[in-house]
Amino acid sequence: MSFLKSFTLLILFLTATISMAQNNQNFDCKILKDIKLKYAHKPDNTDYIIIKDNKHVENLEDGKYYIKSDLEWLSDCEYNATMTEITLPDFPFKAGEIMNVKFEKIKDDTIYGTATVRNQTFPIKFIIIK
Questions:
Q1: Total domain count for the chain?
Q2: CATH number assigned to the domain comprising residue 60
Q3: Residue 113 included in any domain
Q4: Which residues share a beta bridge with 120?
Q5: Of 35, 42, 55, 130, which is most buried, counting CB atoms within 10 Å of its CB?
């Protein structure tokens, strides 16, 4: 292989590697350990989530119902939430079940990620409440 071809492949490889690294490092998930969020798809501002260290509380219908979970942080951007108390009627999951949550992007005041429970994965999108 000629020097020019080798050099071109090396530059292409380095550019792709740097681009991927920048895409994966463009946000800091440390803010998630002490934060208040609301669902982006719900116009109702009475539902909100508080994450404080290893605790997660989701308040629904202006505090009438809640879901509480203990968090095990796997990284700054991922945790396993063990649901401990659920008062929401007809909620499809039960206390003791574990939901894995991975945050993939924070842009402006919006957080994007995926949640998985019982082998079901679905997208999540939150807005930071200040």
A1: 1
A2: 2.40.128.490
A3: yes
A4: 117
A5: 35
**pLDDT band at residue 45, thresholds of 50, 70 and 90?**
confident
In this predicted structure, what is the pLDDT of residue 95?
Answer: 97
H-type alpha helices, 25-111: none
Chain mean position to CA 74: 12
- Greatest Cα pair distance, the chain, in angstroms, is 71
User: What residues make up the domain containing 98?
Assistant: 29-128
Question: What is the pTM assigned to this prediction?
Answer: 0.76
Distance between CA 130 and CA 104 in Å, rounded? 21
- The structure tokens 């679905």 sit at 122
Residue 81 · residue 69 · CB < 8 Å: yes
Task: Report if residue 105 sits inside a domain.
Answer: yes
pLDDT at 65 exceeding the cut of 70: yes
Instruction: Look up tokens 């071809």; give the residue.
Output: 5
Q: What is the DSSP letter of 1?
A: -
CA distance 61 to 56: 17
Phi, psi values for residue 3, rounded to 5°: -60, -40
Q: Are the beta carbons of 120 and 108 closer than 8 angstroms? A: no
Look at residue 71 and tell me if it is in a domain: yes
